Amino acid sequence: MSPIFILALALCGLAFILLVGWPLVAALARAAASVVSAAILATLAVPAFASTGSDLLSALTPSLLDLAGVALTALIGFATVRFQRWTGIQIEARHREALHSATMTAARLAVARKLAPDAATEFVSSYVRNSVPDALRELAPPASTLDALVRSRLAHAAKL
Fold first, then answer.
1. What is the CA radius of gyration of the chain?
2. How many other C-beta atoms can be found within 10 angstroms of the C-beta atom of residue 64?
3. pTM for the complete prediction?
4. What is the CA 102 to chain-centroid distance, rounded?
5. Tell me: the pLDDT tens digits for 17-60?
6. DSSP one-letter string for 100-144
7. CB-count exposure of residue 124 (10 Å: 0-12, 13-18, 19+)
């Protein structure tokens, strides 16, 4: 197998890592550096083996290619799992931010209308249920947690 093919394989792996996203680059820096170093070493070592006329390289080439395929598959699987975790965290953060924003908006409105505490709590809870149903469905906070969040935001809005 040609050293250019081995180098192209390493560059394809590196390009995939860069296309997945910069947050993964930091997590995969050590693994990518090892793969690139191994590819460069293999590229430099291939002419040395070939120049001696050794049949060792011819005998090991299929096994090395299989090993490179397994390593690349494992790297792609690892990157995919990391990307799925990262996007899941981002989606959860957006739902949480939407829930807190809707709660604060409703709390400010309840304070501006000078509602009684029980009426304000019911107003904010109703507003949140109608405003961000997707966030409530995805986060699924217990009623006690949602009630504590509503009361906390009402107290914060009353101080402003």
1. 28
2. 14
3. 0.49
4. 26
5. 656 654 555 555 556 656 666 666 566 566 555 555 566 667 66
6. HHHHHHHHHHHHHTT--HHHHHHHHHHHHHHH-HHHHHHH---HH
7. buried
